[in-house]
Amino acid sequence: MTEPASSLDAAVTTLPGIGPGSAEKLARLEIVTIRDLVLHVPFRYQDRTRSVPFGELVPGRECVVTGEIVSANIAYGRRRSLLVTLSDGERRVTVRFFHFNVRQRQGFQAGLWMRCFGDVRPGPLGLEMVHPEYRLHREEPASVEAELTPVYRVTQGLTPKRLGQWVDKALERAADAVFSHLPDEVFPDLLAAIRFLHRPPAEPDIERRVETARSRVALDEFVGHYLVLKNRQALAKTQTTLPLPSREQLGRELLRQLGFRLTRAQARVTAEVLNDLDHDRPMMRLLQGDVGSGKTVVAAFAAIRAAENGYQTAIMAPTEILAEQHFETLSLWLPPLGIEVGLLTGRMSAAERRTRLAAVAEGRDLVVVGTHALFQAGVEFHGLALAIVDEQHRFGVHQRMQLRDKGRLPHQLVMTATPIPRTLTMALYADMDVSTIDELPPGRTPVRTHLAMMSRRDEAIERVARACAAGRQAYWVCTMIEEDEEADLGGRAPLHAAVTTYEELGRAMPGGLRLGLVHGRLPPAEKSTVMADFKAHRIDVLVATTVIEVGVDVPNATLMVIDNAERLGLAQLHQLRGRVGRGAGSSSCLLLYETPVSAVARQRLTVMRETNDGFAIAEKDLELRGPGDVLGTRQTGDETFRLVDLAVDRALVPKAVRLGDRLLAEDPATARVIVDTWAKGDIEYASV
Ligand code: ADP
Ligand code: MG
């Protein structure tokens, strides 16, 4: 009996044993269909296939141990605990319980056998296990598990075991489903690789085999993603939209007004963008350029082009501050050319919002800058021809698409300051053309970065005071707002929170220096006032949380101190540092760190000291990150991949691209199968 592949798209509730309650829990893991269950592979394994003789135990490693109970006694040390001593005939191991009841205690009869699973660690009496999983036996138990035990990502109220049982059922259903077959791979059959990951047999060298199987699945997923993007690109080529040809040469007018000359890189990418707009095929272009490389003016040229043609541009920014910053900049540049600019954010009063919405709907605002408020229902454009998205990685693909839906296939320009290593652009933005600004405006002296232990905070304060006395301004960046937020950090080194730091600096700084404080919890209006004051040099030192990460542009600020820099990721540190070094004066950045520093954090800090090159930093970032989040996609809840972990799997990208291209050309049936396997049925894929 062959089941069509589509049966995998049935809801999990069609499996016996999964009711609405369970389905709800699964949904929290984004498991909705049987396919989702099949593709929910374990993220690690426990080895219960062997009971380890006491003489071979390795501290820190999880394992099964089996021994005869010699004694069970209560020890009254710093904490009362129950110690069960096991013997394997030669050596002894202690099992320690801090929580136990009388019945449990009475169960540990000398002469019984105990089998435990857990971590082994050194203790006062030799090796011990604390609160392991265990079972008592009358005789020495023989059997161990035949297979490695998969560990699944689960959610509250769901045990890995239960999930594993459902996976088994899902795999039964998948038996005849069609998955890809790639003859050149060690695991030609995708389904075989997936099965292997769910139920790896006990065999020698199993770890390597598991890794091979995982790569096979990751490759499939990468190829699927790539094919979807390629399809989307091919589709876009068949679609037409409004061409926006050059009309009034208003761009030249802006060039004259700017007060600076474009860098070669800016001129080049502007030409690329304008050339796209000349045509009736919707532009899909990614503009990447390091912090401060001057992307905004490129966006302005594009918006001018749309305006010349009588059409609107929407510019979407991830934060209010950044939206306001763009609004200010564009309000300087565009109205003199007769192009009205509007701002639409979530913090406007209802009346303001109505006025703005009307101006947008009637087409009076030809350029509209905003946050996510831009794509909310109720925002109607008169004629949207161009959608520009800044700091793209902070928005999910969904949001980008929603904005796109507001117009009749508007041209799209996506700007990012998080440089993406080339290998990744190939896979992640395969549907887009890429323009790169690889040059900073002239006259910028590179920011010098220094590291200092927190104990040298006084020196940092002195430096800030000196810089300000010389007429410069400084940022002091903190990682949290108030000290009490640290309560749940459980005894780790105290963070110098913004509010406390603000007060502390107020006491420590020489009189006459003006301090400002800005953080995410400040009422919006106050936030804007503080930023404006800093910009106008009515404030010398701005104490801030990481809200200033993007968009703040104050060339006279030449010093930045970052408190607890060891806590921040490389991308974030780089973004923050990009706030200084924006003028001609030489700038520096001081990274204060609390000791002890983890090895990885130390490496991050060292990278920051050694380079200002965003691309180099992005590469390093990928290297240093463990499995987890790259490009911030996890934070926005827009998980692009099910299994692929960019930090681990990016080496597969070139192969995936080659394979994807080959399948498109020679084996479209397999290409289709792979897309069907990985499609999540969301906007991203549905628009293929
Ligand atoms: P980002 O790429 O980080 O968005 P911006 O567009 O904010 O960079 O530009 C950073 C600063 O550099 C702004 O003050 C901008 O006016 C200025 N700038 C941009 N291009 C040039 C240039 N070619 N020469 C001098 N200054 C420039
Ligand atoms: Mg910018």
Based on helices, strands and strand pairing, what is the structural class? Answer: alpha/beta
Distinct helical segment count: 23
Counting copies of identical and different chains, the oligomeric state is single chain
Tell me what portion of residues adopts beta-strand conformation.
15-25%
User: Roughly how many Å apart are the termini?
Assistant: 31 Å
The poorly predicted ranges are 1-5, 485-493, 626-638, 682-688
**Cα-atom radius of gyration:** 30 Å
Q: How does the overall form come out from the CA principal axes?
A: globular
Number of strands: 22
The main sheet orders its strands as 6-7-4-3-2-5-8
Query: Average pLDDT across residues?
Result: 86
Bound molecules: adenosine-5'-diphosphate, magnesium ion
Q: Into which percent range does the helicity of residues fall?
A: 25-40%
Main sheet summary:
7 strands, mixed
Plain-language structure description:
The protein is of the alpha/beta class and 688 residues long. The chain is built from 23 helices and 22 strands. Helix 16 links the parallel strand 19 and strand 20 (541-544). Helix 6 (206-238) crosses helix 21 (653-666) and helix 8 (264-277) packs parallel to helix 9. The longest helix has 33 residues, at 206-238. It is globular and about 90 Å long. Residues 1-5, 485-493, 626-638 and 682-688 have low confidence and may be disordered.
